[in-house]
Specification:
Layout (H helix, E strand, L loop, with lengths): L38 H9 L3 H8 L3 H10 L1 H7 L9
Helix pairs in contact: 2-3
Length: about 90
């Protein structure tokens, strides 16, 4: 990562008399756990679990697991969102 990042001002545009603090972003890394009701959707989004995997891991109905997979734009584009295939 360079010094110029999207959404941040160009350093040449900062006034000379402004106080400036430089922070290395790798030192600011932290994680926030998702809300418990969002863990199933987050698990599919991150790991692309299929409906059977979601059903087994989170003890939810197979219909709810299929709905999560169907809502995924990647999965629904590839196989119609059935959610029963491998890595879908």
């Amino acid at each position: 990562m360079g010094a110029l990042q999207p959404g941040l001002p160009n350093p040449a545009m900062l006034p000379l008399d402004w106080p400036l603090l430089i922070v290395d972003l790798k030192d600011c890394f932290f994680t926030i756990a998702p809300h418990p009701r969002d863990t199933r959707k987050e698990a599919h989004t991150r790991f692309q679990q299929n409906a059977k995997g979601l059903h087994r891991e989170f003890q939810i109905s197979i219909e709810e697991a299929r709905a999560i997979v169907r809502a995924c734009p990647v999965c629904s584009h590839h196989n119609g969102g059935s959610g029963m295939g491998v890595d879908v």
